[in-house]
Specification:
7 strands; seven-stranded mixed β-sheet; globular; 8 helices; alpha/beta
Amino acid sequence: MKKIKTIYFLTLFASSFLVLYPIFLPLLYISSLHYKAHQLRRFWAKFLFVGTKIKVEVICEEDLDPNHVYVFCPNHTSYLDIPVIAYSLKHFFRFMAKAELKKIPLFRTFFKTIDIPVDRHNKKEAFKAYQSGKSSLLSGTSLVIFPEGGIPRNIPNLGNFKKGSFKLAAELGIPVVPITIIDNWQILPSQFSGLPHFNPGRCRVIIHKRIFPDLNKSIEENSVILSRETKLVIENTLKAHEIIS
């Protein structure tokens, strides 16, 4: 039965995306239409969750002005995190994630247009990505950055946080918004050999209060503080829900 559910999920995931792809394409390659591409991505995610019986429950600890710019930092436990974040956030944003995602056919066009790939193994490309992220924030578009840089091996425990997202926030004086994704590691586990095991159910997402950089501190000091506080918020939330000890 689990195998049937998994095949159904993967089939709906791919087929629904491919059906919408001809609509996505012009929206992605025309920058003025990126907002509409983002809205279509949210629609696709909602359709996917309804069709696969994933109930996404979003809790916001404070009202976030959709016209303000933020650096959203979620924990990363599953490939399901990307559509879950697309669905959960009402803000227009760009994903800033590892360049390896460009190798996945369904995500490739997004990371060539609206989203920002980060190649941490290439200093020149990493700097280029940082500048693209900075330009995005300065132009009024928020970023979603998984600070762990990828899905860590010891999920649901947190991996080490990379400093890029917090340095961007510190340099531009932009608040960081931690996000805790609680259940995805159980719905679609990332650690598998062969076919993944899909377990539909409740997906809880908590969008936490903003953490502001201290304008009296240096960029480096703020980067460290923002990283530490963001990790603490997410870690404590996972502990409160008895996901980690």
